[in-house]
Write a structure and sequence with these properties.
It contains two helices and no strands. By secondary structure, the protein is an all-alpha fold.
């Protein structure tokens, strides 16, 4: 290997599975937060939200 070549990257299957598990846990947490927001009526109309957001930039 000369100084311009990149070394081979080795990723273990176990490590890859752990990353996927972390992603699933994060998604579950976000879903739970969204369900709480819905339960407490902490929601907005998406179109109105982006219209107001864009109006701030004018």
């Amino acid at each position: 290997m000369n100084r311009h070549e990149k070394p081979d990257t080795i990723v273990s299957i176990d490590g890859d599975e752990k990353v996927e598990e972390i992603k699933i846990q994060l998604l579950k947490a976000r879903i739970q937060c969204a369900q709480c927001d819905i339960h407490f009526d902490n929601i907005v109309n998406g179109d109105n939200f982006f219209d107001e957001l864009m109006a701030l930039n004018k």
